[in-house]
Specification:
By secondary structure, the protein is α+β, with helices and mostly antiparallel strands. It has one domain (59-221): 3-Layer(aba) Sandwich (Aminopeptidase). 33% of the residues lie in helices and 27% in strands. It has seven helices and eleven strands. The chain is globular, with a radius of gyration of 17 Å. The two termini are 31 Å apart. The relative contact order is 0.13.
Length: 223
């Protein structure tokens, strides 16, 4: 497999990736095709696809925020099973991220990820790909070391319609596996930055952010 970066919506591989996203994820989680033009050109964002024999079989998007010393996994998609797509993407993402941090002469405290909580959000088919089942993904991410942050999480819909998306946990993969908590102020700053692109925020998100502003430390809890 090849690990190929996408930087324009005119790349034929992007059209493949976007179709795969629409198959895998619920509609409110997928940014419209044309709205990807600006993010893909952003040097603070990396979108890579796993390509096998000319076909996109997986994808991952991630960010690094030097000022906050944290990264974010926006998504990891396995489009074809029994090809080793998941381990391939995780390994190559980690290698690229560490090079990115080094180039910035920065530091990496850890990586955020939004993880579906199937115990509260019901069943998601995720395109019929068993490896993308929320129960499977949650257990895999737990094995990787992700832990959930101790607060009720919602985020603005990527449809930018002002609706709230719930049924997820905000999680963190700490570079220090012994770390027990994370400053709420760091989480607040990161989420403010991450969702700045969406002007229409639901009231529940604003209330959540106000609550974070009043918190001290957030415990890192098992998934």
């Amino acid at each position: 497999m090849d690990y190929i970066r996408i930087q324009t919506i005119d790349d034929p591989l992007f059209a493949q990736m976007h179709r795969m996203m629409q198959t895998i994820f619920p509609g409110e989680e997928v940014l419209a095709f044309d709205l990807w033009a600006e993010p893909l050109a952003d040097e603070g964002l990396r979108v890579y696809v796993a390509v096998r024999e000319g076909e996109v079989v997986g994808a991952t998007e991630y960010r690094y925020v030097p000022d906050l010393q944290v990264a974010m996994t926006d998504f990891t998609i396995i489009g074809r099973e029994q090809l080793g797509v998941g381990p391939f993407l995780a390994r190559r993402r980690r290698e690229d991220l560490l090079r990115w941090v080094a180039a910035e002469k920065g530091k990496l405290l850890g990586m955020f990820a939004e993880i579906y909580n199937p115990y509260v959000s019901g069943d998601h088919e995720f395109g019929g790909v068993k490896a993308m089942n929320p129960f499977v993904r949650r257990e895999v991410l737990a094995h990787l070391g992700y832990r959930r942050l101790d607060f009720a999480y919602v985020h603005p819909s990527w449809n930018n319609d002002g609706e709230a998306v719930s049924g997820l946990d905000l999680c963190f993969l700490s570079e220090d596996p012994e770390q027990a908590d994370l400053p709420a102020s760091l989480v607040h700053r990161f989420l403010s930055w991450y969702y700045a692109i969406l002007p229409n925020k639901p009231e529940s998100w604003t209330a959540m952010m106000d609550g974070l502003a009043e918190r001290g430390e957030l415990k890192l809890l098992p998934l």
